[in-house]
Design goal:
The structure holds 2 protein chains of 2 kinds.
Chain A: H1 22-35, E1 43-47, H2 51-54, E2 63-65, H3 71-81, E3 86-92, H4 93-99, H5 101-110, E4 114-120, H6 155-162, E5 166-171, H7 175-187, E6 192-197, H8 213-223, E7 224-226, H9 227-231, H10 235-238, E8 242-249, H11 255-262
Chain B: E1 5-8, H1 9-20, E2 24-27, H2 34-43, E3 50-53, H3 57-69, E4 74-78, H4 80-96, E5 100-106, H5 125-128, E6 137-139, H6 144-161, E7 164-170, H7 171-175, E8 177-180, E9 226-228, H8 242-257, H9 260-263, E10 266-269, E11 276-279, H10 282-297, E12 302-307, E13 309-311, H11 315-322, E14 327-332, H12 338-345, E15 351-356, H13 365-375
Parallel strand pairs in B: 2-3, 2-4, 4-5, 5-7, 6-7, 11-12, 11-14, 14-15
Antiparallel strand pairs in B: 1-8, 6-13, 10-12
Helix pairs in contact in B: 1-2, 1-6, 3-4, 10-13
Classes of the chains: A alpha/beta, B alpha/beta.
Chain lengths: 268, 376
């Protein structure tokens, strides 16, 4: 087995725009899948709508690609009805946090054994550049022609607050870090969230003087700091920065285990 | 030994589902349907099944389809506003061809309406509640015993035709109690999802065979493919070519059209010589049955045609009866829904008379009888 066995090679290249780093996330994911030797027939990928939601159809797994925002709702039905199957949800930020926000917090509360990977490109790419709940204040989007007026979600704090037992952030610039983070998340038992900062030069960059893919990667590099760096920084210095690393790595009873224990001895 | 019990319609639905082999239920509380999920929450663990109360009806419907893609018989239960929220994912089930059962115990609407008030306002929505053209099999029982049988039938149809099936009920039949022996009821064969022995490398999940119905192998069984709501090719991959889009829409709709005669269920009472035909469903059909008896005693030739399969609508069986009558009366607890289908199939010379009641109470036999006397 090699990482190539986890993709449908005949379907490539991806449909994504040049300079898009969703492909970087996909690359990291399949390499980790290979490292962990994920059993393709005992793993289900769930995804939904948007650029990040369509890419998983190129993976050589059973893939359930559902209605916008509902990946984690479907994933919950998969995991609860077949706890022996590994379930991975690959989502964009609009998918996971706007339309799917309700399912996101409840999946975290339940601590159901699902790995949720959220690509944060700060924009709705597929529909042409509208603002997301992750668009930075002031940034321009087609529906924020005067600049983004709302504050953005801190995905990791939302996940932690709702009860996720693994929460980490990485990004498409630090690919080694990304792979290590995805590997840890995929090995975690319980609801695991990885937010990955990605870049969309076409829809975000073009409206924010960052149309150059390399510039957008530079931006990710500049706005990310490690936990160790962050500890030495003042709140003013941390404004607009994203801390990368693990925020939560803990253990509490997982939902399908709780069910199995509660009903042990009952039924067939 | 007879084990007759006084059983509520909603409980009969839950017990029918267990009889059919349901092993997963996701739901969200909503009156007047909640008894069904309460019963399943109690009983599913005893048969190795799982119940979960989701965060809303959108999630419930999603979780049900998630279980279905794993090959598990799954259902959800709701009423008006919850049924609204489920529509998008019901269409997903129709498009992706995932079987499941959705029970809608109708209450007075629109919106919050009246949670405890009976109504029949969702007859059209049950078929046409979603965007695009997708098929729906919709069944509507009118007694506790029939709720039990039709719940089994709903699962059978879902697995056989690979599509969500809606079991419509209403507050009256859901909360009504009748003296029945469910164990003694012969529900017939329990249908299981078709399987194939085709090797995974040659498997094309959405390529229908001579039945027009695809065989979808459960995820996790060695077959890797994509299940999605976007137009897709035979492998499930996104494909928006005109030929492919047409083929997708044709497949999901024609598989029901071509099997409609096997799906149609209906009941006729005294239709042979009827001058006046009543067409009624659910709780109202019980009043209509009473009217047939009373009218016959008065020497009026009244009959009843009760569609049990609401969608696909039993057009031919009804039109055969309508060809013999002088007038048709359609009593229904809404602004006028069933009557549209009746008008579609009736001959021009037959008058169609509506009785619409939307005050949250049952149409009583005397209300129908009064119209029969006017029409005769």
């Amino acid at each position: 087995m090699s990482w190539k066995d986890y993709i449908k090679q005949n379907m490539f290249p991806l449909f994504t725009c040049s300079g898009c780093t969703h492909g970087t996330v996909t690359n990291a994911f399949v390499r980790v899948a290979d490292e962990l030797k994920l059993d393709k027939d005992k793993t289900v990928i769930v995804c939904a709508i948007g650029c990040a939601g369509r890419i998983p159809t190129f993976l050589d797994f059973p893939v359930l690609r559902v209605t916008h925002g509902r990946a984690l709702a479907f994933a919950t039905g998969i995991k609860l009805s077949r706890p022996d199957v590994k379930v991975i949800a690959l989502m964009g930020d609009g998918d996971a946090l706007a339309i799917g926000g309700n399912h996101f917090i409840h999946a975290a509360r339940r601590n159901i054994d699902i790995t949720a990977i959220v690509s944060r490109n700060e924009i709705y790419g597929m529909t042409g550049g509208q603002y997301a709940p992750t668009t930075p204040p002031g940034a321009r989007a087609t529906t924020a022609p005067y600049g983004m007026l709302e504050p953005a979600f801190d995905t990791c704090k939302v996940a932690e607050g709702a009860g996720a037992t693994y929460v980490a952030r990485s990004d498409a610039y630090h690919v080694q870090h990304l792979q290590r983070t995805l590997k840890a998340a995929l090995q975690h038992k319980g609801f695991a969230v990885v937010e990955v900062l990605t870049s969309c030069p076409t829809q975000f960059g073009r409206r924010n003087n960052l149309a150059d893919p390399a510039k957008m990667l530079e931006r990710i590099k500049e706005m990310t700091v490690t936990k160790a760096q962050a500890e030495k920084m003042t709140p003013e210095e941390l404004a607009g920065k994203f801390v990368i690393g693990e925020f939560v790595n803990t253990s509490r009873p997982e939902l399908t285990d709780i069910y199995a224990q509660a009903f042990a001895g009952m039924g067939v | 030994m007879s084990r007759r019990e006084l059983i509520q319609g909603n409980e009969a639905c839950a017990r029918g589902a267990l009889k059919a082999g349901v092993r997963f239920c996701a739901g969200y509380p909503i009156t007047p349907s909640t008894d069904v999920v309460e019963f399943l929450a109690q009983e599913l663990p005893k048969v190795g099944g799982r119940f979960i109360q989701m965060e809303d009806e959108i999630a419930s419907m999603g979780a049900v389809l998630g279980a279905s893609v794993m090959g598990v018989k799954a259902m959800t239960v709701t009423s008006g506003p919850g049924f609204d929220l489920m529509q998008e994912n019901i269409a997903f089930g129709a498009m992706a061809q995932l079987p499941c059962v959705v029970v809608n115990v109708q209450r007075s609407g629109p919106s919050t309406g009246g949670a405890t008030l009976p109504a029949q306002g969702d007859l059209i929505q049950a078929k046409y509640g979603t965007s695009g053209d997708s098929p729906r099999i919709v069944l509507y029982p009118n007694s506790v015993e029939e709720i039990y049988r039709l719940t089994v039938k709903a699962f059978n149809y879902a697995e056989q035709y690979m599509t969500p099936v809606i079991l419509l009920m209403d507050e009256i039949i859901g909360h009504m109690r009748e003296d029945v022996d469910l164990e003694a009821i012969d529900v017939g064969e329990i249908v299981e999802r078709r399987r194939t022995n085709i090797p995974p490398s040659e498997y094309r999940p959405y390529e229908a065979d001579e039945t027009g119905i695809p065989i979808l192998m459960p995820f996790g069984s060695g077959y890797r493919y994509v299940v999605q709501g976007m137009h897709h090719d035979v492998y499930g991959m996104p494909n928006l070519s005109a030929a492919n889009v047409e083929a997708t829409i044709y497949q999901i709709n024609s598989k029901i059209d071509r099997h409609k005669e096997e799906i149609w269920l209906w009941e006729e009472k005294e239709t042979e010589d009827a001058d006046i035909l009543l067409v009624a469903v659910g709780c109202v059909s019980r009043s209509a049955l009473e009217v047939v008896e009373q009218a016959r005693k008065r020497g009026l030739k009244v009959g009843l045609f009760r569609p049990i399969t609401i969608w696909p609508f039993p057009e031919e069986p009804l039109s055969q009866v309508l060809a013999r009558v002088k007038a048709v009366i359609v009593p229904e607890m809404n602004w006028g829904q069933l009557i549209h289908k009746v008008k579609e199939v009736k001959p021009d010379r037959v008058a169609a008379v509506p009785i619409n009641k939307y005050d949250g109470t049952l149409i009583m036999p005397e209300e129908i009888l009064k119209v029969v006397e006017e029409v005769k």
